[in-house]
Amino acid sequence: MCCAQITFSCFNSYFSYSLHSTPITDHLPGEGPQLSELTGLFVLRPESVTDITFVAKVDSSNLIKRPVMKWLKGKWLDLGSKAGKHLQFKESYDRNTKIYTYEMSIIKVVDGDAGGYRCEVTSKDKCDSCTFEVSVQGRSGDRHLITLLSSSIRRIHHYYVLSFSGLARSSVHYSFAAQRKEEPEVDVWEILKNAKPCDYEKIAFQYGITDLRGMLKRLKKMKAESKKSDAFLKKLDPAYSVDKGQKIHLTVEVADPDVPVKWFKNGQEIKPSANWQDVPDLEFSFPCISTEHLIIILSRSLSLSLSLTSFLLYPTRIIFPRHPSASRYVFESVGNKRTLTINKCNLSDDAAYECVVGEEKCFTEVFVKEPPITITKLLDDVHTVVGERVEFEVEVSEEGANVIWMKDGVELNRDTAGSKYRLKKDGKRHILIINEATKEDIGTYYVYTNGGESKAELEVEDKELEVLQNIADLTVKASEQAVFKCEVSDEKVTGKWFKDGVEVEASDRIKISHIGRIHKLTINDVKASDAGDYTFVPDGYALSLSAKLNFLEIKIEYVPRQDPPKIFLDTGSSGGKNNITVVAGNKLRLDVQITGEPAPTVCWMKGDQVRKNWLSSFTSHHTRVRYFICSVLSEAEGRVRVESEKNVCSFVIEGAEKADEGQYSITVTNPVGEDKADLFVRVVDVPNPPENVKCTSVGEDSAIITWDPPAFDGGVAVKGYLMERKKIGSPRWTKLNFDVYESTTYEAKKMIEGVLYEMRVFAVNGIGISQPSASSKPFMPIAPTSEPTRLTVHDVTDSTCALKWLPPEKIGAGGIDGYIIEYCKEGSDQWVRANEEPVGNIHYRVKGLPVGEKIKPALEILMYSGLDIMFSNHLGSGKPRPVVTWYKDGVPMEDRTVGTRTSEVDTILFIRSAERVHSGKYTLSVQIENMSDSADIHIQVVEKPGPPIAVHVTDIWGFNAALEWKPPKDDGNCEIIGYTIQKADKKTKEWFTVYEHNRRPSCTVSDLVMGNEYSFRVFSENICGLSDEPVCVLNVFTPCPGLLYNPSPYKEMDVSSCPKFTAPLVDRSVIAGYSAAISCAVRGNPKPKIIWMKNRMILGEDPKFLMQNNQGVLTLNIRKPSLFDGGRYSCRAINDLGEDEVECTLEVRGMSMQFSLPTTM
């Protein structure tokens, strides 16, 4: 007895296991993700999943051109042409990563979507592709089948059903059922072998073969003779055909029964699934069963352990299905036979298979036939009238099926139907459209599929003409217009107009028009002879429309009209006064409206004097008004003239002058009355130039300029002045101000000392700028000369006094022309000039002095420019010799370090070594008998200041340090004018000056090195120099470790936006045969994808349509449209952020032939 112990358990998933085979991998061909090896273009490849969206990513960083993606099904079917509601494609681009993302979505997956798919990407000379599969399966049930098969039996005649409902009662129930007999299959390949090549397509359509290329390739291989093989006793047939949803067996016989066999599908090995775990729970023992097969149904929630004792003598094969897709592939090994069974075949099983034994192979190809296409909704009969649109609609069982349309036995397709018929597919619906049906379209229409047919009758009748608007009777007057108008239902209907039974011919006065459904007869300048009965008769119809034209004659008796004249004068001035302002040189034109009947006489005058002699008179053709021009206005065609135009009299002055200013009047008279109007003409101009421009004083680099306002301001107030200057000898004038300067005194600056200049001035008013003024006299900017020094009295007599002095320390650019000496008596402020001519020497004797008077002399410098500066030095003089006494701070001086020396003419105070204590007020007192005089001298002894105090570092940040200190206690007896700051690195110990003459007691030291130790010192400074000793401060400059400048990353502005149409499509009506275009405008970022549709159908690469996109302006050009091209057009813009759509209606009208016969005289 042979005993085998088998333990298994059932879970929610399916699995498969064989006692005589290796474990199967998790993914079977066509069931799991299968990615080909990366070739460098794909970043992410689509996976074989049962979801409805597939994603592929392509890296374009190394690509020259934009990649092109194609989605294919099977071997050659391009899915791009099938885009619609069922298949949707999406493309996006990431500028940062330079990766293109392509998506394919399948909406509402059906069984027909199963099969092998391939995506190909190309870019110039680079390409890449990968394959993936889609399997469509129903939902798994709550049970799993475990089939125990005998290895010696080839066919299954019975099966046993083991119900677990009886396990609780420890009993097993068996039931037997006969297997359903299989219907005989038709061998399509035998039919194809015996058929003609021209019938291959019809046979493929009948039996549901979609891969025509594979079919022809297989037929070619079937005709070749097979070679004998050492490994195979019987090879696979050249091809197998199976209906969708059925099973198929692929069987070979091998020479060695123990040799391993491998099966491949499309070059990929078919492997069993992974091992499953034994979970023993219940144990049953069965006697030897002489049956061929045992099928056990296990519940999800139970585990079973079977002990098979004495299990026959047959080799046994056990299959544990893991999931529905894995159970579709069954491997059998019985003796020398090896069989691959494919259960529930779908379109993904339509592939090439091979069986490999060692180094030898045998090939076959399996073709999966789809079930026949049936018609679920039949055609309906149609009854219509001529010119209407007809649609035959049929619905089939599957989407994308092929149907054949026929009329009275003749096939209708895109080649034979022409523009009259149009075939349309919409999912399962197939529509035959007939535009503008005629009686020639009457007949029987058929539609065929490989599984059914339907027919319908079309009846077409003539269309009756309806009158939408009848013509109406008219009553008109002489010279008026009469219009007869009618409207019929058919815009193509033509007709004729008749008057009293005679056809009306078109002429210059009579117009006949036909626009759409409206017919018009227009009669201009109606006469009495036009009265009568008018009739419109449409061509081809027993119909007439009639109306009557009545002529109304009116007699008018003319009575002359009399109206007094009236002047309508509006100058736009305020206050009720007619004032007109005109700029000199401009043209003045005043239009005055005049009314009156009979025609009035017009007279223009200037001033109060009335002129009696008339130069000319003329009559206006339009208003019959007579105009007269007074002699004061010169002739009618001169500079000052009067013009007439209809009811307007115009007063014109060409190139207004100042003499044209004054009071003007206009008088109009006729037999009925008189009217008069006055106006004042004011002529304004630019002002006259300013006058009397001169320089009043000069400085080192400046001068004071004055001028007088212009004598005439041009009739408008002067706003200000513009000044210019130039050097003597230079032709170039330089503007000194660009804004108007209001004053008449101006200080010109930034001039060169010792250079002669000229000035001129412009006056500015509301009209413009005047002519330049006359240039000023030349002047020279010079620095003032300092006073003479050391003025002393050298000798004194009764009436004379000899003076000596030294030249000025600073002499200006103009030099010194001489000196002038003046004197005055003590107690008086009147100075008397001692010399008439300037003295060139530095000594002079003043004569004619009064005896016994105290005299104060003064010295005056005469310079080149004529300007003088006076310095006074008061000295005492007299006899006998004066007594000189020196005081310090009001106390007689006793300090031995200060010495004095007095001579007959002077006294000297000297200090050999000045110190701070010598500072103070020194007084010189001179006394002669009972008269005395004194003078004060202030002496300030200064020295270098002391160092600053309290120097410290207040803050450290980045590369900077802030220092502060306090002023020194000792300022050196004078003002501190600044501080000097120095720094030194501890490594080099070299001092570098950071700031000089720093006025504030604080500073910021920059450009320091982070982490270095620095020393700082500060010197105080006065007029004597820097302090001898500085104040130092030591600081370790160590910023925080994390103190680094991290600039914020640049954030690119997000300009992304969903598509938005800024200009919509507009409904249009065009003529057939003439090219037309419809346009709209869209914006969006990233650049949206544009899709043009007609009647919700995408327009492909039809050469009749030219699609253009210029900077967001979208244009669809239609080349010579026909009536078939009319319909609803729409434009859709799509990007990653959304989509937008606009639409319009395009009406294509046929050309109407219009002509007119020549009028017979």
UniProtKB/TrEMBL annotation:
Superkingdom of origin: Eukaryota
One of the record's GO cellular component terms: myosin filament
UniProt KW keywords: Actin-binding, Cell adhesion, Immunoglobulin domain, Muscle protein, Phosphoprotein, Repeat, Thick filament
Extent of the signal sequence: none
GO biological process: cell adhesion
GO molecular function annotations of the record: actin binding
Protein known as: Myosin binding protein Ca
Source species: Oreochromis niloticus
